[in-house]
Amino acid sequence: MATATRNSWYIPAKPTTYSVVGFIAALIGGTLLAGIADLAGQIGIAHLAGSTPESVLRAIASAVIDPATIADPQQLLIIGAAVHFGIIAVMVLVYLIAAARIPLVNSTPEISIFGYGLILGFIMIWIVLPLRWPDRVPGTTPVDIIGPLLRHIFLVAAPIAMVAKLAARRD
């Protein structure tokens, strides 16, 4: 609900607080929910491109280890999943800290989802991936730009924000 004060509009908000159990539950729940949703989205995209689900986890694992050095292909998939969920855990942690420090984050989750998803998409697609694979330049077509941003908004930021909102204390 917006309130008018001296010709400006603002949304009254209190800082978000979490109990220790709520914070840990939000961190684990957000990581699992956003991680599974994002991985499912990536696997769906890989399937449309004619690749296998294993190729997604292999590609993620190859960010930290040379696949040729792993004899067991199952270990490579486990490493890929661990790296993926580790990255998602950092994303959840940053959101939870922001929600605790910036009152508007959890009081306006719709705006936060959109903004955080755009930030995550930008960082992953145009900073992290090009730093790891300099020979792969991000696409410049509208689909190449909008697709990853929408995926990060709806499959990563939305689950994180929902879990953070549910885990917040209700004083």
Briefly characterize the structure.
The protein has 171 residues and is mainly α. The protein has helices at 20-48, 53-61, 73-101, 104-107, 109-132, 142-167, and strands spanning 3-5, 8-10.
Per the principal axes of the C-alpha atoms, what is the gross shape? Answer: globular
Q: What gyration radius follows from the Cα positions, in whole Å?
A: 18 Å
SSE series = EEHHHHHH
Largest sheet: 2 strands, antiparallel
Q: What low-confidence regions span 5 or more consecutive residues with pLDDT below 50?
A: none
In helices, the fraction of residues equals over 70%
What is the helix tally?
6
Average pLDDT, all residues: 89
Class per helix and strand makeup: mainly alpha
The count of strands amounts to: 2
Q: Give the termini distance in whole angstroms.
A: 18 Å
Which percent band covers the strand fraction? under 5%
What does this molecule look like?
This protein is mainly alpha-helical and 171 residues long. It has a domain of 116 residues. 71% of the residues lie in helices and 4% in strands. The chain has 6 helices and 2 strands. Strands 1-2 form a two-stranded antiparallel ribbon. α1 packs across α3 and α2 crosses α3. The protein is globular, with a radius of gyration of 18 Å. The two termini are 18 Å apart.
